[in-house]
Structure formats: structure tokens, C-alpha cells
Description:
CATH superfamily: NAD(P)-binding Rossmann-like Domain
Distance between the termini: 26 Å
Number of strands: 12
Number of domains: 1
Order of helices and strands: EHEHEEEHEHEHEEEEHEH
Shape: globular
Oligomer: single chain
CATH topology: Rossmann fold
CATH architecture: 3-Layer(aba) Sandwich
Structural class: alpha/beta
Largest sheet: 8 strands, mixed
Strand content: 25-35%
Amino acid sequence: MANGDKKIVIAGAGSIGCYAGGCLALAGREVILLTRPRIEAALRLGGLQVSDLEGRNRSIRPEALAVTADPAAALPEADVILVTVKSGATQDIAALIKAHARPDVVVVSLQNGVDNADRLRTELPGHMVLAGMVPFNVVQSPDGEQPLRVHRASDGTVMVEDGDTGLVGLLDVEGFAIEAHGDMKAVL
């Protein structure tokens, strides 16, 4: 999987999703943030500030962000979809992926919970769905604060199920370290 020509959609770009998407965008990856209208408006108004424990503090101007609340605009473009919605929204995001994404898209569940990847697999037969785990928390700035700030407030390396050659290379960027793991059930 070559880095330069792959589009990554963050499906459910809230705190974790905006942090991951911000790190990926800052590393030159092509990222589309699929988010709620409230967050879309904040990002379009003031951009995104990404900070972490190591003292990194970087900003992305609003015009440099690809952001939408419309799944029909974001999902057909995706080569990789990082699912960062809450567990309760797994069925809904799966239905949107099924309706709008290409069948060859790689779907990675970066959700809390042991069975979210399995739930996505059930709803998305024929799609490559990989389990993942984000071991750190991200704090979002209060509503109305500009730019929208997402701060990684703890440490850890994101783990993603083995299964797609090149995925780790695409996603492993400064501030968002990723490793492949052969037994995600044990990790989760």
C-alpha cells in the first residue's frame, strides 16, 4: 500500500478521530474527517490544533482540512476507513460504509470494545475489516474554543490486526505510532 495515493477517511472524527486524522494529515497523508455537523463547523471556522505529552503542538488551517458531515461525500473516496465511532454507533457506521464505500476498502475498527470489529465484519461481508486498539486518551477543547484542540493526554502505541501489507507504513506517523499484532483478541 503506497502512502502517497491512498485516501484515509476517519469515520466518526471526534476526539480520537480528529487526533488520528490530524497526525496523519500533518504527516502528509490524504485524510477526510467524517464528523458530526458541530465538529465540522468548528473545524471549518478555526482549523485543528493537535498536541501531545511530548510537547508537540501543531496546527492545521481550516482551508487545509478535508472535513464533512456527509458520508456520501467522504466514504466513496476511501481506500482506508478508520472507524472511531462509539460502540453504540457501530451498526449505523457499518450501514453507511456498506451503502457508500467501495468493496475493496480496508476498514479498521479503532473503537473501544472487544467485539466491534466482529460486528463490522458481520455487517460488511466481503470487506477487509481489521481490529485495532487505541491505548491512550484524547481530550478535546471545550465547545466554542478555536481552533478545535485535541490533546493526547496519555501514552501508548496503537495496535492493528495483521492482515494488510503496508497498512502500518501508511498509518504509522509522528504522534500516532502504530504496530501490527497477530492476536488482537488478546490485546483487546
